[in-house]
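Let us work through a complete example step by step.
Step 1: write down the sequence.
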Amino acid sequence: MEQRPVCLSVGGSDSCGGAGIQADLRVFESLEVQGCSVISALTAQNPSEIIHIQPASLTQFESELHVILDYYPVQSIKTGMLYDEQHLLSLVQTLTTSSYTSLVVDPVLIASSGTHLFQSENAIDAYRQLISRATLWTPNLQEAAFFIGYEIDDPVDAASALLLMFKVPVLLKGGHGKGEMYHDIFCDMDGSVEIFEHPKKQLSSTQSHGTGCRLASAIAANLAHKNDLLASIKSAQHWMQTNL
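Step 2: predict the structure and record it as tokens.
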């Protein structure tokens, strides 16, 4: 039997299964990669609210990272909720001595319910150290506004600003935007811009919960199959539209 490429999800556990580690592992299985996980925090949540977050100890977090990365030939790593600066910087330190092909950073900062998911007064500086290592990062509009420091009127301008800010290819997710259509904006280091336009579907809160996690993990899975970055994004976009 042919060995599937290995993808590692580093993020939070979602007790309702719609986002986080649980969603990533389902996506990995659907896209025929072997999924592994490292949990930064446990959450007590449903699609409407988060009532408690318990971080994993740094010892547990680092042990999970090393036991997976030391054993498996991990092709692609996808990060989600990292909880705080300590966990993020521990991950960065581990990555400096680990072998992997691609890194997709989904900067999970604030839940749709408004709960803060990253505990740090220096979130931008902390994330800069992780994003600088990334193949791609995938903020949504709310997260993008946090990083650039102002509300977003023009998503293309915002994506360009994020590219200049971190000098890493960016996919700005537009699912929370206004209007009947939503637009995901991809900006690459060569200055090219690709706009993915889709009609907004009428989704229940259960269906919409975790869509950003699933898109980022679908991109990571495609990268693990050794597709190039733009092809991986296009394949992940198609997968999302057929699986929402």
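Step 3: interpret the result. Residues 187 and 193 are 5 Å apart (CA to CA).
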